[in-house]
Amino acid sequence: MSSTPRVRRSLSDIQYDYDHGKKDELEALILAWKGIKDLPASHPNSFFSIGGLHGEPFRGKGKTDAKWWGGYCQHGTVLFPSWHRAYLWRLEEALRSIPGCSNVTLPFWDECSEHSRENGLPSALTQESFVINGQKIDNPLRSFVFPQAITDELPVTPDNPIIYSKPEGYETVRYPLSGLVGTDADRAATALHNDQFKDPKKNTTYLNENVSTWLSGKIKIGGKWRGEVFSRFENCLDAPDYTLFSNTTSAGAKNKADPTGAHHVSLEEPHNFMHLAVGGFDYPNAGDSSAIPGANGDMGENETAGLDPVFFFHHCFIDYVFWTWQRRQGATDEFSIDPTDPGAGYKDAQPPAGDAGRDPDAILGLDTSLDPFVKADGKAFTTRDCINIEKQLGYVYGKGSLDAYAQPAKQLLFKAEAVQSAGKTLRVSRINRAKIRGSFLISAYAEVDGKREYLGTQPVLSRWHVEGCMNCQTHLEATATFKLPLNADNSAIEDSSIEVQVQTRDKVLKRPKTADLLSTGNAVADTPFQLETY
């Protein structure tokens, strides 16, 4: 490893340099990506091989049994940040293996930057082609054409008749397009849907507008209007320990156990927002169903998210936020994992992952292998091996939008702005994930100061095959927690004005405004999902 760490810069900064005549860095990145995409599918450094480690094509027990996860990715567990850190490192090493590209690093899409909030994705991720050395080439960052088919062998159920197969030659899609092509019915519906969106430039405009709306959409927090996704990234940086910071299972369990206490936000929560913004959900501010129903982009579910190049630029930003949290909390060299936390196991999170499938009762910790990644000495990567990115992995991050939050001395400044009177807490539960195809949104609304207001959304990044999975035998339920604002006179909003919507790929499920919200300790009502205030 070089004594001088390589620098992962913001893709927008690299794009700016390119647009102003300094083309070398972006052109090298494009050639590196083209190189790994051109490798044979079976090559260990090919994009098909590496992109497919996240989910599809499934392997091991998860190939035919939904009780197991056929991909390697970790979601809803304490390994979420570290597994994806190792994943990015593996992809970056592949990029650097392409002749002439040994100095390439993986940039991050700075999702909290002003540029992203106003414009959406950097154009390097969406433009159709580049001219390099006098030759016009298709942009390798825009999509990926499968060099071979992926075949979904999981059993079909009446509640989830999805077959998530994709043929050789399939090209990944983003909002507003659909990529469901596993059955005759899906292919017909997808063809009908995509026929409405034949202009690539207009589709890029739709995508950027949707991403920009997600990033700039606002909710009221502590009496002030704050950017919803930005505030989630901001709030996760104040997680007091790695376990709560790392995943939605741990943060959700803590919020459930102490609903009137501090509301904890994990890194995984705002991460989920951006998957769904690119993968096919509209911002739910108006409380209506999708403006473009039927959008099913590959980033929207875990099965094929890793096969869209934008995944890695998104996750590079997530790793930047992870490192920012480490710097803010003084955890650049060590942190701990609570072995008793529900996020330190599979029962309340995702199914066991990997080739053979992990022990469903395994306790996940600093020394758990981050399959399938191995170090230079051939030993398995663990979280302990990738805590300090500079000393252990040989890279650092360039200038980013959250740099000010990395300084521990500034914690009180940022916290002081958020100290405001708070209202009650709303908890939404009894949402059966097995009955919902794919990812979904849980959104809340209420009357504040005499006007119906949007209170926020909890994104659930899910899979198409959920029913029967190992964790779902005991944890089919999805939940969400919202801190309710106060009226301008500091009075509590009326429970009877609260409305919750669950926006799925197929429809919007509503729990109408009602006067009989459950308070703590009341009997469970027979409703599609349950609302409680504390």
UniProtKB/TrEMBL annotation:
The keyword Kinase does not apply. Residues 75-92, 308-319 form the Tyrosinase copper-binding domain. It holds the Pfam family Tyrosinase. GO terms for molecular function: metal ion binding; oxidoreductase activity. Residues 333-358 are annotated as: Disordered. This is Tyrosinase family protein. The keyword Metal-binding applies. It comes from Pseudomonas gingeri. Keywords: Copper, Metal-binding.
